[in-house]
Write a structure and sequence with these properties.
This protein is an alpha/beta fold. The protein has 33 helices and 16 strands. α17 (396-408) packs antiparallel against α19 (422-445).
């Protein structure tokens, strides 16, 4: 009996312990499987926190990650799906949107509990970062919404070995003149890329180095919380011109929409990357320098950091306190000490900032520091500015990249460069930037004159009324048509239809739950300034009004039509042609079926990454073109005339096999006697195709056409991986734009309005196809 009592007591105490444990979902936790020095150092920081707080269990919260998809979108999808992180890792550019949406909580109550009201904590933060984390609330009081961890500065790394071979000094170029001179010298080495700059969705990150070095910027806060796009200024124009000279003018730089491989790093002369308490690349192989100064002596290098914030939806006070303790510790000087000590113990002292080595008592390791390393660190940290952090800055890098793509592809700009007419080139750049800045001010920041807004609302009212009338008319038409068609059907056996209805009930309930209820909710969102946590406000027809006059929306419709044209021609007819060919060949049918179907076995994402590598500037396809004497300096995904085709080909290649087998099964259902009779009558190939094959698979063709048409308007996944919507919006189809609007810009209302407009456009075609299917008769094949 006493043993039973003690057993129950232990179980009760264990249950109490489990109840007391706090599970904290954290973004940015290090991967336990990683073995590199930086990850091991972060693991020690986490271990030190857990040792201090044994009652808190940290769980990674990373969400969905897709190439070309920014981290903000992954976070918003987790929050929308009810699995929000308790500790959110924000970027500077997304911080304003998180704060306005009410997704992150103010840390002021917890700072107030620290010594001196948290002044010591805020005093440790770089002054350039303070305006990013401290914003004015609606009450007017400044609120701290997060704390920065491991600040980094942008710098220029150079390949020591390539610099030695080119006879260049062992340092980074100091200004633009030296950057051009060094790049020209590296180009003489042969198969060497003097400078690497990211392309695709990363274009803006490399471009900002030149805009700021010229003395310009992407955005300017002209009044408290009132931002305006300024990348059309004369200073920013200088940055665009320099970028053009490097990429298209002298072709001293090359671009890729992915990270460099180790082999590509060996043939790259210079690249922009961050530096913080440690260098991003081995300093024995790569030297580090500050961002080269522009013509006015500016550098304007970027300072950045991850901002750890507390999710505002946490309801348990104990969990909120645990989240604060984690944020406070990970961003503290003590955590920095743990990181630096770990790196030194792991033999990585050579990559550590010498100032950090001195701060934490590792002066003996300074002998490992490469010559000039400390001075370059200090130079990089001087004259730095934070990443844009104003209103709706989530996609600011894409906004500055759009005009750059347009300039790179401009024929007038190319002709002006070849003629040496700098004035004409500047005029072309100025005109493109002016239109792009105007679009950014309207789309991203929301500057629309009142009289223009009134006109847009009138147009939107007419459109919404037309959509409502169309849906009512179509609904009545379909009910009448299918009621008439169903009247001619034989009644169920015994006139007891209950069993049939019961069989249909699960499918009908599923469609209602996942299709129609979200559609009803979406109708409501289209008229709201929708916020995930805060109270949404009614805006009437403003979402429709702004969408109708948004050039990006109409451009996305053109891109969708372009995508659909490829998919409904090559993508739709190729499986039929392959199936017909396979049906006619006399031998080796199993072999050909296997070959056709093999691409479908590969993961869909892997297919697109495979083809993306083939389409690169140095990919296999461009190498084959070079052998034929045609030099294409760009990746196919960066050519507006080829980008959409490059997005379509992988999907067709992977989907042709399964479609082929479906059509082959339909061809097998055609009685062979019809072919024999036609041959006796002397019918040829075209005659048999027209009078036997086409009628035999006509029903399948119509059904597949509907599916292909619907898929064409939802083809965002492969485009997101291949191009991210670029270049210059050439592949930004409607579904991709809707996704960006909702999960990157957090503009759920306009995104829903776009979806309703597109749905109404497809309504008539859908009704026509449904009526045709209702008149068809289906039979089983023998």
């Amino acid at each position: 009996m006493p043993q039973l009592f003690y057993l129950l007591l232990l179980l009760w105490l264990g249950a109490g312990t489990l109840r007391a444990e706090i599970v904290l979902r954290v973004q940015g936790l290090p991967n336990d499987a990683s073995t590199d020095a930086a990850a091991l150092a972060e693991q020690r920081v986490v271990a030190a926190f857990q040792q201090r707080h044994p009652g808190v269990r940290l769980v990674p919260a990373e969400g969905l990650r897709v190439q070309g998809l920014n981290t903000e979108a992954a976070t918003i999808m987790m929050i929308s799906g009810g699995i929000a992180p308790d500790v959110i890792r924000m970027q500077f550019r997304s911080s304003d949107s998180y704060i306005r949406q009410g997704l992150v909580a103010s840390l002021n109550p917890y700072l107030a509990g620290e010594p001196e009201g948290g002044k010591a904590i805020l005093g440790e933060i770089e002054p350039q970062i303070l305006p990013v984390i401290q914003r004015r609330a609606e009450s007017g009081e400044p609120q701290v919404y997060g704390l920065p961890t491991q600040p980094v500065w942008m710098g220029l790394y150079f390949n020591r070995e390539l610099f030695r071979r080119a006879g260049l000094p062992p340092r980074a170029p100091r200004d633009w003149e030296e950057l051009l001179a060094f790049a020209r010298k590296l180009k003489t080495l042969g198969k060497v890329h003097p400078l690497f700059l990211p392309s695709g969705t990363g274009t803006g990150f490399g471009l900002m180095n030149f805009i700021r070095a010229a003395g310009g910027d992407a955005l300017h806060e002209r009044a408290p919380d009132e931002w305006v796009a300024v990348f059309d200024s004369p200073e920013a124009e200088e940055g665009y011109l320099m970028y053009y000279q490097l990429i298209e003018g002298e072709r001293l730089a090359y671009r890729l929409a992915r990270n460099l491989t180790p082999e590509e790093m060996e043939t790259t002369g210079m690249l922009f990357r961050y530096v913080g308490d440690t260098a991003a690349i081995d300093p024995d192989l790569w030297g580090f320098g500050a961002v080269p100064k522009g013509p006015r002596g500016h550098r304007g290098s970027e300072i950045n950091a991850g901002i750890l914030a507390m999710y505002a939806g946490i309801t348990e006070e104990a969990k909120r306190h645990a989240a604060w303790e984690y944020i406070r510790y990970v961003t503290s000087e003590e955590a920095d000490r743990v990181r630096i000590n770990a790196l030194v113990e792991l033999g990585q002292g050579a990559i550590v900032n010498p100032a950090a080595l001195r701060k934490f008592g590792h002066e003996d390791v300074l002998v490992m520091t490469p010559p000039g390393f400390e001075a370059e660190f200090a130079e990089a940290m001087a004259d730095c500015r934070p990443e844009p952090y104003g209103r709706n800055c989530n996609l600011i890098y894409m906004e500055v990249a759009y005009p750059m793509d347009e300039i790179l592809l401009s024929e007038p700009a190319r002709r002006a460069w070849e003629a040496g007419d700098t004035a004409a080139l500047r005029n072309e750049i100025r005109a493109i930037l002016s239109k792009a800045a105007e679009r950014t001010n309207e789309r991203m920041i929301g500057h629309v004159p009142p009289e223009e807004m009134a006109h847009r609302r009138r147009v939107a009212a007419a459109l919404v009324a037309a959509i409502a009338i169309a849906f009512i008319f179509v609904g009545r038409s379909l009910i009448a048509h299918f009621s008439k068609a169903g009247a001619g059907l034989a009644p169920p056996v015994g006139k007891k239809p209950m069993a049939a209805w019961l069989c249909l009930l699960p499918a009908g309930a599923s469609v209602l739950l996942w299709n129609y209820l979200p559609m009803v909710r979406g109708t409501q969102m289209a008229f709201l300034d929708y916020r995930i946590l805060l109270k949404s406000s009614f805006v009437g027809l403003d979402n429709f009004a702004n969408v109708l006059f948004d050039p990006s929306f109409w451009n996305s419709l053109l891109a969708t039509a372009h995508f659909a044209a490829w998919m409904l021609t090559i993508g739709f007819f190729l499986p039929m042609l392959l199936a017909y060919a396979l049906h006619l060949i006399p031998k080796h049918k199993i072999f050909y079926r296997t070959v056709y179907y093999l691409p479908a076995v590969i993961s869909g994402t892997a297919v697109f990454f495979l083809w993306k590598g083939l389409f690169d500037a140095d990919g296999l396809l461009n190498q084959i073109l070079q052998l034929t004497g045609f030099d294409n300096p760009r990746a196919w995904t960066e050519e507006p005339r080829l980008a959409m085709l490059a997005c379509v080909i992988p999907g067709i290649w992977a989907g042709a096999g399964p479609g082929c087998l479906i059509y082959l099964a339909a061809l097998k259902s055609i009685p062979p006697e019809q072919f024999e009779a036609s041959e006796i009558d002397g019918a040829g190939f075209l005659s048999k195709t027209r009078h036997i094959v086409y009628p035999g698979i006509k029903g399948l063709i119509i059904i597949n056409f509907i599916g292909a048409l619907v898929a064409a308007f939802h083809g965002a996944t492969n485009i997101l991986i291949m191009t991210g919507g670029g270049p210059n919006g050439a592949t930004e189809v409607a579904s991709l734009l809707i996704f960006f609007e909702a999960f990157s810009r957090l503009r759920f209302g306009p995104a829903t309005a776009m979806a309703w407009i597109i749905g109404s456009m497809l309504l008539g075609l859908t009704v026509m196809q449904l009526k045709r299917i209702s008149r068809m008769e289906f039979r089983t094949a023998r």
